[in-house]
Write a structure and sequence with these properties.
By secondary structure, the chain is of the alpha/beta class. The chain folds into three domains: 5-85, Winged helix-like DNA-binding domain superfamily/Winged helix DNA-binding domain (Arc Repressor Mutant, subunit A), CATH 1.10.10; 92-165 and 268-293, Periplasmic binding protein-like II (D-Maltodextrin-Binding Protein, domain 2, 3-Layer(aba) Sandwich); 168-264, D-Maltodextrin-Binding Protein, domain 2. It has ten helices and 14 strands. It has helices at residues 5-17, 20-27, 31-45, 61-85, 100-117, 130-138, 186-190, 202-213, 227-235, 280-286; strands at 50-52, 57-59, 92-98, 121-127, 144-149, 160-166, 168-173, 183-184, 194-197, 222-224, 240-244, 254-256, 258-259, 266-272. The strands form four sheets. The protein has a five-stranded mixed beta sheet with strand order 4-3-5-14-6, with helices on both faces. Strands 10-9-11-7-12 form a five-stranded mixed beta sheet, covered by helices on one side. Helix 1 (5-17) crosses helix 3 (31-45), helix 1 crosses helix 4 and helix 2 (20-27) crosses helix 3 (31-45). It is rod-shaped, with a radius of gyration of 30 Å. The two termini are 54 Å apart.
């Protein structure tokens, strides 16, 4: 049923005050406009809502039923308006997109801190690859993302902030791949069983581009969607895993291979959609990554 909120608002004030004149004062409209709005609402609902007399106004049984539903709804709207307009309130929702690896090994401490400081804010985390997160951001499904960078899907974004520099590493179990003390070339790595993220990831794009610049064709032994699984497979000797260094809590029975070529560093970037003004909650979370905070 298509009934304007304004009609329900007029009904609320008349029902709350049991006075057409008092309602007109609170709404800053004429008494005749209040009366006309109530008549329109009664006609749309097909029910009488008030008993009118020269001395007083009373709710009909139908009006009482409607008021029981309208009163909490109007109060909730008022509460929401007050919260949005109060600079000291940070209620609402924080929607953030990031890959499993970035969430687990980087974001969790920040999310934990934010939740403790602002428990009234609902935190929604969406997991995608860094490329997929850029799509979530563009479609407005999240407020901010933390992504590997470079990321071709973030090209041209003016709201990028580099928040962590990291190094990708090749790791292996020495019991199966004994290269400790040696420096391997990309050409040598090409002939070894490499374990890496699948082609939908920025990490795969990054490594394929590196090999391509050396005129080498990269054909991984295993391509997965989880860095944790790549590390587990490297530990049991199935190959040499290519993973970000921050994803290694400890090397345990793994070691880092030395390379003849220097791998470029990459970054974790925080990005927001500049077409959408950030909420107070988003601004507060972004402040965690200000240089003064670190």
């Amino acid at each position: 049923m298509d009934i304007s909120y304004e009609l329900y608002k007029v009904f609320y004030f008349v029902a709350a005050t049991l006075s057409f004149s008092e309602a007109s004062k609170k709404l800053y409209i004429s008494q005749s406009a209040v009366s006309q709005s109530i008549k329109t609402l009664e006609k749309k609902l097909g029910q009488p809502l008030f008993i009118r007399s020269t001395k007083k106004v009373l709710l009909t049984p139908e009006g009482e039923i409607l008021f029981r539903h309208i009163e909490p709804a109007v109060n909730l709207i008022h509460k929401g308006e007050e919260q949005l307009m109060d600079p000291n309130q940070f209620g609402g929702q924080l929607r953030i997109g990031a890959s499993d690896t970035i969430c687990r090994y980087f974001l969790v401490p920040y999310l934990s801190r934010f939740h403790k400081e602002y428990p009234e804010i609902h935190i929604k985390v969406m997991n995608q690859t860094s490329i997929g997160c850029a799509d979530l951001l563009e479609s407005g499904q999240v407020d901010i993302i933390v992504s590997n960078f470079p990321n071709i899907r973030l090209k041209g974004y003016g709201t990028l902030r580099m928040i962590k520099e990291f190094q990708d590493v090749f790791v292996a179990n020495e019991a199966y791949f004994s290269f400790r003390g040696e420096s391997l070339s990309f050409s040598q790595l090409q002939r070894l069983p490499l374990l890496m993220l699948d082609r939908k990831s920025t990490t795969s794009e990054f490594l394929h581009n590196l090999f391509s610049r050396h005129n080498l064709n990269l054909v991984p032994e295993v391509e997965l969607s989880s860095n944790d699984l790549l590390i587990d497979l490297a530990r049991i000797g199935l190959g040499i895993a290519f993973v970000p260094d921050y994803a290694l809590d400890s090397y345990d029975n793994l070691y880092r291979l030395k390379l003849e070529e220097t791998l470029p560093h990459r970054f974790l970037a925080l990005a927001s959609n500049e077409q959408i003004p950030p909420s107070a909650a988003v601004q507060k979370f972004i402040q965690y990554f200000d240089p003064a905070e670190n």
